[in-house]
């Protein structure tokens, strides 16, 4: 059982802001002390670059940085050569899509979905525009889920890329990606998985899922912002045209041409996100320390508790009562979500209002925007109760209940 009081000791923001009811972890998780300490350690005691120096400090920093790569690799059951540090999930997804600009042709098809975050769909929309490949959407179920059947209905020999979210950031639905990947591979397509919302909540084994690429961000898993990860199968990363050119990614340079190093270096031009990677490694240690099973049991219980209470309120629509991730997407009927979110803030309740960088989801739901409450390991029943009271008060204020 998770003891939230103890957990909050690990998140310094609760010492500085003891009254916050933070229900926006799907946007960014709070930062764990261990990760902050590691970032601080780098700046206070090391502060130098990696890979380049022949001196002790450079060696120590490089060991820490490459140790972080190894840790990330083990976390998702990959090899260290398959881990590219990026600025975030957005950069990772753009990096892959950019390389496929040169690999796709007119008539090729890219399968995606209306559940995508903009960072998973817009790069492919641009690739499609540039190459004249076609963007194809998986038909969703009435509830808004991607299913194996829906996927099979659009998969064809023309499919070259499948770019899907693992868990929707708005509706919290889990995509059956293992089955989808098997079908995609049978047609010779590659699978690019957006794991920004799944990696912070569940154990991921890229070997088992067999996806070709996986992207995620450090800041959603208690780690620093400014660091993310692109996992890719080694033989694919080795062929990926770099998004950026510069220092440390190059093998030989002549006046006319250049050759690139093997992955991951070919995809990490310039000084990498050293402190971010080191901080992320500490966040991963923390996640291991708690364990995904414990985290899931805790957030699932809290999610169900809150959902039940919210559904009992008149004048509220919940769009995703069967969500797999601890995310509730809802509206107070006829009231703009921003008005509700502003009022919730008066109760120190932080939720997200808007289209959540996934406008196609709002369009699918037939609304302009929604509210989203999301939970993580540091939330408790008191948070849920205050949230429900605040929603009730906002509803009463705007709807005159
Ligand atoms: N995909 C999903 C599903 C997300 O929720 C997010 C973050 N909201 C991203 C991609 C992009 O992540 P980042 O902003 O950290 O690059």
Task: Spell out the blueprint of helices and strands.
Layout: H1 4-9, H2 13-16, E1 21-22, H3 33-46, H4 56-75, E2 83-86, H5 89-100, E3 109-112, H6 118-131, E4 134-137, H7 148-152, E5 159-165, H8 177-186, E6 190-194, H9 206-209, E7 213-217, E8 228-232, H10 234-237, E9 250-253, E10 258-260, H11 274-290, H12 292-311, E11 316-318, E12 327-332, H13 337-345, E13 349-350, E14 352-354, H14 359-365, E15 370-374, H15 381-399
Parallel strand pairs: 1-13, 3-4, 3-5, 5-6, 6-7
Antiparallel strand pairs: 2-8, 7-8, 9-10, 11-12, 12-15, 14-15
Bound molecules: 4'-deoxy-4'-aminopyridoxal-5'-phosphate.
4'-deoxy-4'-aminopyridoxal-5'-phosphate is lined by residues 88-90, 117, 119-120, 165, 169, 194, 196-197, 217, 219, 228, 357.
Any overview of this molecule?
This protein is of the alpha/beta class. It folds into two domains: 4-30 and 291-399, Aspartate Aminotransferase, domain 1; 35-288, 3-Layer(aba) Sandwich (Aspartate Aminotransferase, domain 2), CATH 3.40.640. 41% of the residues lie in helices and 15% in strands. It has helices at 4-9, 13-16, 33-46, 56-75, 89-100, 118-131, 148-152, 177-186, 206-209, 234-237, 274-290, 292-311, 337-345, 359-365, 381-399; strands at 21-22, 83-86, 109-112, 134-137, 159-165, 190-194, 213-217, 228-232, 250-253, 258-260, 316-318, 327-332, 349-350, 352-354, 370-374. A seven-stranded mixed β-sheet has the order 2-8-7-6-5-3-4, with helices on both faces. Strands 11-12-15-14 form a four-stranded antiparallel β-sheet, with helices on one face. Strands 1-13 form a two-stranded parallel ribbon. α3 (33-46) runs antiparallel to α11. The radius of gyration is 22 Å and the shape is globular. It starts with a helix and ends with a helix.
